[in-house]
Write a structure and sequence with these properties.
single chain, alpha/beta, 9-stranded mixed sheet, 12 helices, 31% helix
Length: 459
């Protein structure tokens, strides 16, 4: 089992500022919801509770004594919020590991935590030095501890901390990328788990680029079979692949490129909760689906799990072969930014219609015949040059979030391509105050029943 922690950037920066406020040791508690899969237990930080004032009994650069009531209050808060607890303290002298005294005190603390916090889950602790995160572990119910494998900090950038810094030799295949971004970014790419929802025109292009960038593990969700009429824009496809599952074409593409990318296949669309649940193992997701139901689900998924989603689309407006406009879009879905509902990129009416058509096609047809349900429409025009342009833009946004190569002032969350006008625009829009994405109650909710607080189609 892997263990990880995810912060929102503002919360992490507030924690760093608080713990660096003095040359004496400082401490805080973090209230976290949980996301648990077969391979990973993920703690999602939702609230920071600093230890201050009368709760500090003794304090020095190498030691701190905290009043028991502070621990009791934090445990009660975690229990009331059906959450887990992280204890964080600083080592101003720069000592990077948990000390022997930390081992003794934390063993007692977390034995009590497992008694007082009735939420099923895991608890743990972090150490920060003046240089930042330096040690992280969870305490298991049996009193043993084990390392937290990675910590994510999600916001204007997506930063990662790993318990073991990789010294893996970088393949010469990536030499020119290393010349651009340096070896640390190349090693980071090899450790990332990235999801792709839909491997049609844009999705297959994203896949090809991520493989060649050296992303370590790629999760691919698509329940459709390939139609040979789409060979003009699906990367890795052949005419003879007609009726082959799209995920199999994607798997073959990764194998034939031969860079060692691990591929995890999900043979269902994300309108099945089992498919979307699998993506909880990912660090980042690319949304390459055409349907508004899928987009809406990814929209909520990003908010509940602090997993950035790069949602993209291409729209060609043409009449009898004459192009009126070609518009592409890449929208980054993260907490605090306008979501697809805020931006009017999805509509409740079409989401409901698509859900009905997928869950009960016969019933949907009957409602359509009676005029109560709209038809979903014919497939939209698509051209490989335009889908590739938008896919490349999304991958560039991904790289910018990791490296900041576009500069510190580039904080936009949407890129608009007016392809027929050779024009690119960007914007950064805050959430609408009355939209669900602006309500912090939903932020980092993690695993709830029903999943994403949503009703799901039968598996």
């Amino acid at each position: 089992m892997r263990y990880s922690v995810t912060f929102l950037e503002d919360d992490y920066e507030a924690l760093e500022k608080r713990l660096a406020a003095s040359t004496d040791e400082q401490a805080a508690f973090l209230i976290c919801r949980i996301a648990q899969t077969e391979g990973e237990t993920r703690l999602l930080v939702r609230e920071l509770l600093p230890v201050t004032g009368e709760d500090v009994i003794e304090q020095s650069p190498v030691h701190m004594k905290i009043a028991p009531r502070a621990y009791t209050r934090a445990m009660k808060r975690a229990n009331d919020e059906k959450s887990c607890l992280l204890f964080v303290h600083s080592h101003p002298n720069g000592y990077p590991n948990h000390s022997a005294q930390d081992d003794i005190e934390e063993a007692k603390l977390f034995k009590t935590a497992y008694t007082r916090i009735r939420t099923p889950g895991i608890h743990g602790s972090l150490v920060l030095t003046p240089q930042g995160l330096s040690s992280a572990r969870v305490w298991l119910p049996d009193g043993e501890s084990t390392s937290i494998e990675r910590i994510r900090i999600v916001g204007r950038r997506v930063r990662f901390w790993f318990s073991q810094q990789s010294t893996t030799e970088i393949s010469t295949f990536f030499d020119r990328q290393v010349r651009a971004f340096g070896p640390d970014i190349q090693r980071l790419l090899s450790h990332l788990r990235v999801g792709i929802v839909g491997v049609g025109g844009t999705g297959s292009s994203v896949l090809e680029q991520l493989i060649r960038l050296g992303v370590g593990t790629i999760y691919i969700s698509d329940g459709e079979r390939f139609e040979s009429s789409n060979v003009n824009r699906v990367y890795g496809s052949r005419v003879i692949d007609d009726t082959l599952p799209k995920i199999k074409i994607a798997q073959r593409l990764a194998a034939e490129i031969g860079l060692g990318t691990k591929v995890k296949l999900i043979d269902k669309p994300i309108s099945y909760q089992s498919a979307l649940k699998t993506l909880r193992d990912c660090d980042i997701v690319f949304g390459c689906t055409d349907d508004e139901l899928g987009r809406s689900l990814l929209n909520t998924f990003a908010i509940y799990y602090y997993i950035p989603v790069f949602d993209m689309g291409v729209k060609i407006d043409s009449d009898e072969g004459v192009i009126r406009s070609i518009n592409g879009r890449v929208t980054t879905l993260v907490n605090g930014a306008a979501c697809l509902h805020c931006r009017g990129r999805v509509s409740a009416e079409r989401i409901a219609a698509q859900a009905e058509w997928e869950a009960d096609p016969e019933g949907a047809q009957a409602l359509h015949d009676e005029g109560y349900l709209p038809e979903l429409g014919d497939p939209a025009p698509a051209v490989v040059a335009f889908t590739t342009t938008v896919a490349a833009s999304a991958v560039s946004e991904f790289l910018h979030r990791l490296t900041g190569f576009m500069g510190p002032d580039r904080e936009s969350t949407e890129v608009l391509h007016l392809i027929d006008q050779t024009s690119v625009r960007t914007n950064r829009v805050a959430s609408q105050h009355d939209c669900f994405c602006a309500d912090k109650y939903h932020w980092g909710r993690g695993d709830v029943r029903p999943f994403l607080d949503t009703t799901w189609r039968a598996e």
